[in-house]
Amino acid sequence: MGTGTGTLAILLMSLAGSGTVLAETDLKADALSAAWPGMQEGARVVDWEGNVLQEGSNGFTCMPTPPVLSGTAPMCLDELWMEWAQAWQNEEPFTAESIGVAYMLSGDEGASNVDPYAEGPTDDNEWIEEGPHLMLIAPAELLENFPTDPHSGGPYVMWKGTDYQHLMIPVAARE
């Protein structure tokens, strides 16, 4: 997976001033809960310090819930998503030239639908806690006709108009 994994892990670890320390087996189980069962065995798993908990062969890197969060938000990212994550973390430009896939089948604790760097809900940042979902990165023109409303009952574009826009695809009801 290259340098993106280490950079992402180091950067996100710097945000983790608090949180519960989990055993390696718990971290691995949490990370793999983001993936569908058929991809778990071949996924690479890393913790937020960059330690490899499981080698992989299928092109996906799974990470446990960031330690700064009290809920759940594990994720499994393909190589394009790892590039995206590095750009987002470093506030660098990113342009999707192909389609990338990420899995968050355990859902997430929440994010702004409009501000890629919001740290919590405000009156105007459309905070959304999403249940199990997939995320697709795609060239901007492929996302143009999707709604941005997370309550529309289907896929929606998060962070529209930014370099980090992506399609959120709910696969189950929100809790």
Q: For the record, give the distance between the C-alpha atoms at the N and C termini, rounded to a whole number.
A: 33 Å
Give the total of beta strands: 10
Mean pLDDT: 87
Category by helix and strand content = alpha+beta
- Largest sheet properties: 8 strands, mixed
Overall geometry: globular
**What portion of residues belong to β-strands?**
15-25%
User: What share of residues is helical?
Assistant: 10-25%
Strand order of the largest sheet: 2-1-3-4-5-8-10-9
Low-confidence stretches: 1-7, 9-21
Order of H and E elements = HHHEEEEHEEEEHEE
Radius of gyration: 15 Å
Structure annotation, total helices:
5
Q: Could you explain how this protein is built, in words?
A:
The structure is a single chain. The chain has helices at about 5-15, 25-30, 35-40, 80-90, 140-145, and strands at about 45, 50-55, 60-65, 75, 100-105, 110, 125-130, 135, 155-160, 165-170. The protein has about 180 residues and is an alpha+beta fold. Strand 1 (about 45) and strand 2 form a beta hairpin. Helix 1 (about 5-15) packs across helix 4 (about 80-90). The N and C termini lie far apart (about 35 Å). Mean pLDDT is about 85; it is low at about 1-5 and about 10-20.
